[in-house]
Amino acid sequence: MALDEDKREIGRHERYRGEYPLVVEGLVNRFGDQTIHDGLDLKVRRGEILGVVGGSGTGKSVLMRSIIGLQIPDEGHIEVFGRSITDADPDQVLGIRDRWGVLFQGGALFSTLTVGENVEVPLKQFFPDLSDSLRHQIARYKVTLSGLPEEAVNKYPSELSGGMKKRAGLARALALDPELLFLDEPTAGLDPIGAAAFDQLTRELKKTLGLTVFLITHDLDTLHEICDRVAVLADKKVIAVDTVPNLMKLDHPWIQEYFNGPRGRAALTAQALDELRRNMELPVAAQTVKALDNGRNTKA
Amino acid sequence: MDRRAGFEIEQEEGEAARLALTGPWLVATIGAVEKDVESIDVAIDRIDLSQVSEIDTAGAWMACLLGQRYEAELVGANERAARLVESVEGMEIEGEVAAPRPGVFTRVAEKAGEKVYNARSGTRGVLGFLGALIVAFGTVIRHPSRFRGKAVVRQLELVGVKALPIVGLMSFLIGVVIAQQGAVQLQQFGAETLTVNLVGRITLRELGVLMTAIMVAGRSGSAFAAQIGTMRLTEEVDAMRTIGINPMEALVVPRILASILMMPLLGFYASAVAIIGGAAISDAFLGIPFLNFLQRIQEVVPTYDLWVGLVKAPVFGLIVALAGCYHGMQVQGNSEEVGLRTTMAVVTGIFAVIVLDAFFAVFFTRVGWA
Fold first, then answer.
1. Do A9 and B29 touch (CB under 8 A)?
2. Nearest C-alpha of chain A: how many angstroms from B22?
3. Contact A114, A168 (CB under 8 A)
4. Strand pairing partners for B17?
5. Which of B30, B38, B93 to mutate to test the interface with A (most CBs of A within 10 A)?
6. Which residues pair with B55 in a beta bridge?
7. In the prediction, which pLDDT does A182 show?
8. Per residue in B38-97, pLDDT tens?
9. Chain A residues inside the 8 Å CB shell of B53
């Protein structure tokens, strides 16, 4: 018991201060004859939102599953908070598990528990010594923090819309105040307004809670809006990690098609318009914006 | 560095005290100090956060809570702490997180009413389901091209062929037990040769089919309910409807048909294996040679005993499959419902089979097949 507590505290009493909370080196994943990753390297900086993009089947989700320990990689080395999880004993990995939060694509909420009880699950699991009332309060706070209305706390997941399920999933991922947050396509299936709000929420949470975010996405607007850097998965590797403008200068066919395709350009215009609005309050600028907006609408 | 959350109270004569929080105030550590810090009963006007080594939202919430209780001011917060305190401050987060639950008297009355209501609507539901099934059978007969041969064959394999080993083993052992236990009793009258009658008639008339029906309910009835229930949860059933496939025809008809067809075969097989089991034990312990036992079966068991079993079998198959498919189609909401409905499918299936078997027993005796 004393040993257990010691181990738990090693993980919890101090935030990670190093530069790279997440390091993946030489990752190899195979399913039968099919190689998904072949010597993949990736480093995530502390305090950044790292977007991960790639075509379907390039192994974005497999990469995330390898990092969070749901998939045992065939080869390679993964370090989280400076500790290896690929060759560590399970106890140590447990000490890492309470320092990250994961939002699965469909939310993956426990369907027989209310939203609030869902958020309480990790709290109960890792910190059984919290009093009931304090635990209820923390759960309620996390639900509000995720932008859900208060009455959602004691609703069951089946009574929620898709967007609300995602937010509830996020609340559960944030339950333990993680340092590292994994988001698997958080804006997929949301309407544009909901998606933009979710992006905003992610950015704000990163700022208030000091999160490092590993974000798998297909959403070009998300990439432009909130990602500090973007990692591109192609050819079984991470072929580039950089800011979006720098990536667009690269001469890789997939990257060019992705960022400079019709949707990529549309997202870029949208962002440019936003910038214009933000930076210039002059009437002339407003007119320009209006004209540009009209032009975009007629094109669309 | 300190690994535990702590606090110190600094008080000077005649003044309100200053509460200094120390160490990490994190979700992982505050559980240990929660009680102590709440039992402070001196007046406090300042809460000092400058000695806190780490803080998260839970710690910030605790600090705010203390601040509210003692009407104290939070001081000495570093940038991160200040940001967190600001984000939790003024949040209305008191209250329960569980779904609201009425009092026990309301709940008992509510449950009782629900049961009565469900019994009524459940009966209507089953009748409606049976009607829809008959309509679906009718459609399939009128439009043979909509008959799903492959699905039926697949179900025949799952319900029948795959059940052979377990049904065989079960029946063999039942034959052994009946012969052995029967012989012990019959020996008291010197009538151990009647063991043959006992084994032959009871397995062909009753136990062969009954035990098989119970086994099919456990193996296939539950599988039907779980499969169809899961398909309902994942909206596969709805997807079928929108494409124009009638789930009754695609999912229910093949399963019911397979059960109706397979039950007589399995029941007969079970009876035969049970007789072999009885013959084997008689050969070993009673001195009745194996082949003599089988020959005597032919002489002492009337043919209508076989018919009694074979008439009941398809009816039992229908009941068991109907229970499975009906409960599967009733699933909605969450994964717990799948489990609940699967249990109900098996329980109602077996119960209905046993009730029906009693009626059959009376009926066949009345018509002279005793």
1. yes
2. 12
3. no
4. B44
5. B93
6. B25
7. 92
8. 888 788 888 888 888 888 888 888 888 888 888 888 888 888 888 888 888 777 666 777
9. 13-14
The tokens for B366 are: 């009345």
Coil, strand or helix at A38: strand
Q: Do B61 and A111 touch (CB under 8 A)?
A: no
Q: Supply A146's token pair.
A: 């995720």
Instruction: Compute the distance between CA of residue A152 and CA of residue B285 in angstroms, rounded to an integer.
Output: 70
Of B26, B31, B99, the CB nearest to A177: B26
CA distance A149 to A162: 15
Tell me if residue B205 falls in helix, strand or coil. helix
* pLDDT tens, position by position, A77-112: 888 888 888 776 656 666 777 888 889 887 888 888
Residue among B34, B97, B336 with most chain A CBs within 10 A, to mutate? B97
Give the E-state strand segments of chain B in sequence order: 6-10, 17-25, 44-48, 52-55, 73-75
Is pLDDT of A14 > 80? Answer: no
Which pTM does this prediction carry? 0.70
Q: Which two tokens stand for residue A286?
A: 């407003």
| Closest to A38 (Cα-Cα) out of A22, A20, A62 | A62
Chain B residues within 8 Å of chain A (Cβ atoms)? 1-4, 23-24, 26-32, 34-35, 53-54, 56-58, 61-62, 65, 80, 83-84, 87-88, 91-100, 333-336
